[in-house]
Amino acid sequence: MKIAFPVKENIGLDSIIDENFGRAQNFLIADSKTRNFELMANQKIAAQGSTCKTGVFKKDAQVDAVVTRCMGDGAKKNLTSSNIMVYQAQKESILDNLELFENNKLKLFHMFDHCQTKKNKKEGGCGHHH
User: What count of other Cβ atoms lies within 10 Å of the Cβ of residue 73?
Assistant: First the structure.
C-alpha cells in the first residue's frame, strides 16, 4: 500500500510530518510493505493557477492512503471521493506513524479529533475554518 505523508524536509522515513497537509511543499510516498519511498511535489502548489479542486497527487502516484496531522474538510472530501483513506498521525516521524499503521493502530482522520478542538493557531490548533 502506498501512503502519502506531508513533509517540510526530506530526511527519508525519519522526516517529520508537516502540520498543514494542503500547504506542504512535498509528500513522501512510502510503500508499507517494502518501505521504499519517493518524494513528490504537492501538485496543488506546483501547478500555476491551481484551484481548491486541483489534486495534490499526480494520478500515476497511485496513493492508497494519507497520514496527516490536520487537513481541511475540502481536501478530506476530495481524497475520500478518490478512494484514498485518510488517517490521523499519532507521532511526529513518518517511520513511527508507518509502524503504527502496519499494526492497525492509526485511526481514520476526523477533523473533530484534532482541528476543531482548537480552531486557531494561537490555541495550538490548525487554523482551518471547518
Answer: 12
Contacts of 91 (CB under 8 A, 6+ apart): 97, 100
Q: Which CATH number fits domain 2-50+61-123: 3.40.50.720, 3.40.50.300, 3.30.470.20, 3.30.420.130?
A: 3.30.420.130
pTM: 0.81
- Count CB neighbours of 114 within 10 A: 19
Q: How confident is the model over 50-104, as pLDDT tens digits? A: 444 446 776 677 899 999 998 888 888 888 888 899 999 999 999 999 999 999 9
Q: How far apart are CA 130 and CA 113, in angstroms?
A: 13
3-state secondary structure of 100: helix
DSSP 26-92: EEEEEETTT--EEEEE-HHHHSTT--TTS-SS-GGG---EEEES---HHHHHHHHHTT-EEEE--SS
CA distance 14 to 36: 13
